[in-house]
Design a protein that fits this description.
The chain has about 425 residues and is of the alpha/beta class. The protein has 2 domains: about 240 residues, Glycogen Phosphorylase B (Rossmann fold); about 160 residues, 3-Layer(aba) Sandwich (Rossmann fold), CATH 3.40.50.2000. The chain is about 45% helix and about 15% strand. The chain has a 6-stranded parallel β-sheet, with helices on both faces. The chain has a 4-stranded parallel β-sheet with strand order 9-8-7-10, sandwiched between helices. The protein has a two-stranded parallel ribbon with strand order 11-12. α10 links the parallel β5 and β6. The longest helix is centred in the C-terminal third of the chain and has 17 residues. About 50% of the residues are buried.
Length: about 425
Amino acid sequence: MEPLLDLKITLLTAGTGSYYCGACMRDNALARELIARGHETHLVPMYLPLQLDEERVDEVTPVFFGGINVYLQQKYGIFRVMPRWMDRLFNGKGLLRAVAKRSHLTSAKEQGEMTCLMLRLEESNLGKEVDKLVEWLERDGRPDVVVLSNALLAGLICELKKRLQVPVVCTFQGEDSFLDGLPDPWSGEAWKEMAKRVADADALIAPSAYYATVMEKRLGLERGAIEVIPNGINLAGYEMAKEGGRIGYLARMCHAKGLGLLVDAFIHLNDPSLRLAVAGTMGGGDGVYVAGLQKKLKKAGLEDCVEWLPNLDRDEKAEFLQSLSVFSVPVTYPEAFGLYLIEAMACGVPVVMPNASAFPEIVEEAGCGILVEPNSSKDLARGIREMLGNPDRRQMGEKGRRAVEDRYHVGAMAAEFENVFGKVVSK
């Protein structure tokens, strides 16, 4: 089917407050490309302002369901009848970002309660927030299609379809790790509610075949119910690596992303001639975690062999990746995709990644790296040592670059989304 042209598309993307949020960067790149392809596209932040490594495609769009307003309106009746100009005060970017920095202090119980409420919006006290979003969407003419950046927003599907009479597309981006981390009974309740809500979406999309299978099983969906559209990046500025001789990491500086495993692997290598460069976001409670790793490196006599580079912008990130000889983010949880992997491949850097999650389908197909035993710092060290000594390392990096040019760039991603939009709008 030929994709429809000149669509009005709204992407609702959940701001996390993180400077290096792969889903938010995916959404921003997708919105920019859809605009370039002739569609009127709005990127609408939910909960928190988007913190990106490049300019946001739609700077004037306000935040909806701002985290402070959601909390106050759910807890205290007076805030449900406050004038909207007061809501706008609570949605100030500076205030929301200040709250985001303290989000790690939010209790698991509160996270569980709010997650279930957002999935059961009609049972919540957030009707005013729903009204504000729908009225804004209608103001300049309703969109032809609404895209939800992740299924934690699935509580909006029925309301948007009923009030706007438009199809809703829901994408998946790592919801399982978040929901499984909630305490009982909210984890189980959220999974059950999500299964009911996503069934009303006009299309479901996952970024990898691995994650499509995971979510089909967890949500009780038929095999093939979720389409696969890999995430893509804008290749501008990503050039082939200059063989800088460094082992590199680019992701949030936290345990879940496997930074501790990589530090332990570097210690196992025990080679003062090697250099490890760690880049990415460091927020919330990450500083304490990083300090512990630095102490461990100092004890091993390797502290001067490691460079720490938090919160790089897009140009700095590309320059960083081009300085690497090997790249690794050995995540410890089931990763739905891993945009950082594609960014390294775009710079022609060979990779050493866990033989788990979405990584095999990306790395093996591209032939751009080595897969190692998950959660094993010793096997990770072996893989890095093997890669550093591999005479075909440059060729592996070139294969990774070609894979991004063929499949993992934003143009390919947008074209596949257009095909989905054509199907759901034509219904």
